[in-house]
Amino acid sequence: MFQLPRPAGVPVRAALLLAAASVVIFLCTAALPGDAADVLGGGRATAEELARLRAEQGLDRPLPVRYLDWLSGVLTGEPGVSLITGRPVAELVAERAAVTLALAVAALALGLPLTTALAWAAVRGPRWARPAVNTLIVTGAALPQAVVAAALVAWLSTAWGAFPPVSMLPAGEPPWHRPDLLVLPVLTLALPTAAYGAALLRGAIADVVAQPYVRDAELRGLSPVTVLFRYVLPMVAAPATRLFAVLLGGLVAGTAVVEILFGLAGLGELLVTAISTRDVPVVQNVALLAAAVVVAGLLVADAAAPEAVRS
Amino acid sequence: MRSQFRRRTAAVVTAVAVLAGCAGNAPAAAPAPAGPPAAANDTVRYAAPGSPSNAVTDPHGLLPGESDMVRMALTYDVLTVPGADGSTRPRLATEWRPDKTLTRWRITVRDDATFSDGRPVRAADALFSLRRMGEKAAENFGRMAMFDLGASKVIDDTAFELVTRKPYAEVGRALEGATFVVPEGSDDFGEPVPGSGPFRPTARGGAQAVVYERNDDWWGPAPPSRFIEVRAVPDPQSRAQALLSGQVDLAGGVPATLAKQQEGNSAVRLLRRPGATLYPLVMRMDTEPFDDHRVREAVRLALDRRQLLDTVFLGYGEIGNDLITPKDASSPRDLPQRTRDLGRARKLMADAGLAGGVDLTLHTTTAYPGMDSAATLISQQLAGIGIRAEVSLEPADTYFSEIYGRKPFYLSYLGGIPFLDVVRVALTPGSPTNETAWKDPAWFAGLDEALAEADDARRSSLLADLQTELRDQGGYAVWALSDRLDLARAGLSGVPEGIGFASAFIDQVSLDG
Questions:
Q1: How far apart are CA A230 and CA A233, in angstroms?
Q2: What are the phi and psi torsion angles at B82 (to 5°)?
């Protein structure tokens, strides 16, 4: 994109990225057909009643005014109130953040080594196994979460009885009090994510292993694990860290299917339900939060990546 | 603080270890599926249809999910409730008595109810709550439309006068279910306001579920369970799985396919509530070809109701007789069942000048299970009389704002509501939601006459005649009614039997029954 002097450029870049994201999010919510007044009226309110509801909710104001109103709310720490429940969005998000973060972080913790292992196996595994690993990566990355969830439930719950098929977390307790209830949701998130990550990472690894010093190391008889950790991973650290930042953002924003299938009340379910009920303040803020996670991850990746290999 | 942090860290580490172990194919090391926690017999856990994201706290606006209705019915008292047999039962209101004109009603409320903050419940609180419902008419389907709440007034602490716009003999029924009473002057509903209901919300809550504790000061029959946990679970399959894995004691609204699988399972009990849901076929009477009575009748005669019931609801229900509220206490009981008669239907089409058939679009959606397959099957059945109905599957989230009340031919939805409620929301001339464009002046005069009839039996018979006329002349084809299916842990008792609002009053559930 554009270059700004470091390190002062980093926060500026982040702010610009988030501002751009906020405009896109706002325009997307504005483009949705219908609004919260239609939902509250249940399709059964008269035109005058709907007009009154819209006025009460500020939905009759021009788009730029609504956008600036939201933006100033975000900047002053009062991002808005749900149009459907009347509750502050910050409160709705706070109640659900723990579940979604627990899922996303655990899925990433599991997905990270799995991504690396799969990508390595696809490039440097036993020659006979590589086509199979590549097929596994492509298939796994393409599988919808609902299918993964159904397969895991059939295997680990119905057949083995190892884990419950749904996850009714105890009321008012943090999710990590019941890790057994998080296993299947986390696996459902982690497996396709790892396959997707491996699909993107294997190219970078292939480039590195083609380098003469890697060949040299291999010819010197170093074990594949040593080669991986000493010569390959440091060189792919920058793209890999960026990839993981994007994956984490995707996990935070992409938990909806898993949350609904397993009966968890998290940010994903909140986002999807709010879209369907046109609860614009909720949609905007949850989407912006997901964007912020991605941006923060990218910044961390940039900062963590060694200067020499930064592309 | 530090030790708590360490405990949490340990829990996370354990979680990751369990996950890692699992990824390494060692599911045997995993804990057994969750059973009820120790000493859980005083907690009934209910997975109700609804979404945790829509959990409203205002009892007088839109209650988007059944879970919301259940939470309100535990927290607040209502004036009257629908009985399982369709009659109106007293609750906070002990008596409702009209003057001779049936326009001024004296409503008496109990003198022994108190809000959770210790204040007594007074008639002023009840009238305040009804007025609030009136103000929020757009969000509660105009539930108070028959009342002139400005002219109504408080008489004393236990009585108020409720004024109706026209003579209205069914005031008891109009106060059923949703008339949640809150303290007079309540204006901030961001958090639940004090209620006088059988249970009280506890601090043990949040997005996942809310725990209610028995209100030992409640005036009514003591609830047998000390706690009720209400959890909104949007996916029907997940609700059923939650019950089957022992994580809840009652799962509301489970899929028929799953109910069928569990028929032989003695650990669970299938509860059926007849007549809970119908997807009436709407034919708009001011639009061709449905402006011709013969076409509407031909459609009703072309439907194979048994096949629809067996396919769409897997037989869990009963075939429809085109009565829009067959479970209403005033619904006519002695009408012959309408059956498929293709010969007569084709003749009616020919008489209407449509012997060569007609092309139509039939709109449907996936908002409720089976609506899409119902439309497909109806389209196939109507081909038998020359109606070439192309099924158009619409997005669920805009169906009730874009299709409902606007298109001439579509599948609608009704969830166990009484006849007079259907009249108010769907059969009022000039209203945007008069989906069939029903406007026969004589019929509405007959309705006013029925509602001005003080004698219960006579009024019921007048209302029955109106429903018969609507069935034969109107724009609805009601082909089947589906049961509401709940799964309960064996031994759970006290689940209410009725449909609609009746099903929300779960205060008498018990695990010891």
A1: 7
A2: -75, 135
Instruction: Determine whether the interchain pair B31/A171 forms a contact, defined as Cβ–Cβ distance below 8 Å.
Output: no
Q: Do B206 and A106 touch (CB under 8 A)?
A: no
- Euclidean distance between CA atoms B56 and B49, whole angstroms: 14
Residue pLDDT, tens place only, B488-501: 999 899 998 888 88
Tokens (6 digits) for A252:
């935070």
Query: For residue B503, what pLDDT is reported?
Result: 87
Query: What is the nearest CA distance from A78 to chain B, expressed in angstroms?
Result: 15
CA distance B490 to chain A (A): 19
Q: Which of A39, A40, A44, A282 to probe by mutation at the B interface, max B CB count within 10 Å?
A: A44
Phi, psi of B404 (to 5 degrees): -55, 130
DSSP assignment letter at B278: B
Strands B387-394 and B358-365: parallel
Class of domain B80-174: alpha beta
Cβ(B226)–Cβ(B511) below 8 Å = no
| Pick from A38, A166, A183: CB nearest B241 | A166
Q: How many Å lie between the alpha carbon of B173 and the closest alpha carbon of chain A?
A: 21
In the 8-state DSSP scheme, what is residue B196?
-
List the single best residue of A168, A193, A260, A269 to mutate versus B (max B Cβ within 10 A): A168
Sorted by where each begins, the domain ranges of chain B are 80-174, 281-483
DSSP state of B32: P
Give the tens place of pLDDT for each residue, B322-336.
999 998 889 999 999
Superfamily for domain range B281-483:
Dipeptide-binding Protein; Domain 3 (3.10.105.10)
Distance from CA of B24 to the nearest CA of A (A): 11
Enumerate the residues of chain B whose CB falls inside 8 A of the CB of residue A96: 207
pTM over 0.80: yes
Question: Are the C-beta atoms of B56 and B32 separated by less than 8 Å?
Answer: no
Please give the helix or strand (H or E) that residue B246 lies within, else none: none
Q: 3-class secondary structure for A72-134?
A: HHHHCCCCCECCCCCCEHHHHHHHHHHHHHHHHHHHHHHHHHHHHHHHHHHHHCCHHHHHHHH
Cβ separation A99–B209 shorter than 8 A: no
CA-to-CA distance for B109 and B160, rounded, in angstroms?
Answer: 8
A181-190, A290-299, B459-468, B471-480, range with the lowest pLDDT:
A290-299
For chain A, positions 41-100, list CB contacts with chain B under 8 A: 41-47, 49-50, 52-53, 84-88, 92, 95-96, 99
Q: What is the pLDDT of residues B278-320, one digit of tens each?
A: 999 999 999 999 999 999 999 999 999 999 999 999 999 999 9
From CA A195, how far away is CA A138, in angstroms rounded? 7
Nearest Cα to B86, choosing from B510, B506, B497?
B497
* Same CATH fold assignment for domains B80-174 and B281-483: no
What DSSP string runs through B328-389? STTS-S-PPPP---HHHHHHHHHHTT-TT-EEEEEEEESSSTTHHHHHHHHHHHHGGGTEEE
pLDDT in tens, B343-386: 999 999 999 999 999 999 999 998 888 899 999 999 999 999 99
- The closest of B236, B248, B240 to B270, measured between CA atoms, is B240
**Nearest chain A Cα to B230, which residue?**
A171
Q: Edge-to-edge, what's the strand order for the sheet holding B358-365? A: B387-394, B358-365, B409-411, B281-283, B476-477
Dihedral pair phi/psi, residue A256, rounded to 5°? -55, -50
Are A69 and A58 in contact, with CB atoms under 8 Å apart? Answer: yes
Nearest CA to A80 out of A14, A19, A124, A36 is that of: A36
**Torsion of Cα atoms, B48 then B54 then B59 then B60, to 10°:** -130
